[in-house]
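User: I'm new to structure prediction. If I give you an amino acid sequence, what do you actually give back? Let's try with this one:
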Amino acid sequence: MQHIQTVLAKSGAYSRRETGRMIEQKRVTVNGVTCTHSTEVLPEDEILIDGKPLPEPAERIYLAFHKPAGITCTAQQKVEGNLVDYLNFNTRIFAVGRLDKASTGLLLLTNDGSIVNPLMKEAADKEKEYLVETKRPVSDEMIAKMRAGGLLIKGKAASPAFAEKTGEYTFRIILKQGLNRQIRRMCSAFGNHVTSLKRVRISHIHLGSLPAGEWRHLNLEEIHLLKVGVNDQN
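Assistant: Good question. You get back a string of structure tokens that encode the predicted 3D arrangement of the chain. For your 234 residues, that looks like this:
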């Protein structure tokens, strides 16, 4: 048996976040019974959303996108500057993780909802590398604390990270965590302010020379390495 959210996400039509909302709204039934977040299903069970069968699985798409500043990582088209309207892609895709509106750099996009949550868990052990520029000089104390971990980000302790100064006002940092506005909040804790934040790598996938606003398909090796361990988590 599989959890209902896993089955819906594997259909490729919905992200896990969306499936959670649909379950809360009582739009999903299994064999005629409204399901809950704890519902498990068998392959032969009839799953309906709004009384309709699941759509046929779409061809899997995996993209690397160079997000420019000013774009919001959301599929909600009521939000000005949303990702969907900007990309105007020919099929429905969503982001694996996020970059805040002011940040730039590598963003992974897919229509494979089954990989999104597992990849964003710290246990997935996926490194994310950033280049950061600050308003004030980067202090040795701030770098040391980022390396040691323990800074509180909205009540949760930041894990130890690789960090190094690359200039008077710049540093490089590699995270495995994904706390909300983590780098900006860590800098703020030392009275500094991020003026530029760019993600240049997620695990083995590099931004490289991809121009801002452009995307490319991941190659087969990149896709395979991205999914290593995901099936075990599902």
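You can read the tokens as a compact description of the fold. Here is one thing that stands out. The domain at 2-53 is CATH 3.10.290.10 (Structural Genomics Hypothetical 15.5 Kd Protein In mrcA-pckA Intergenic Region; Chain A).
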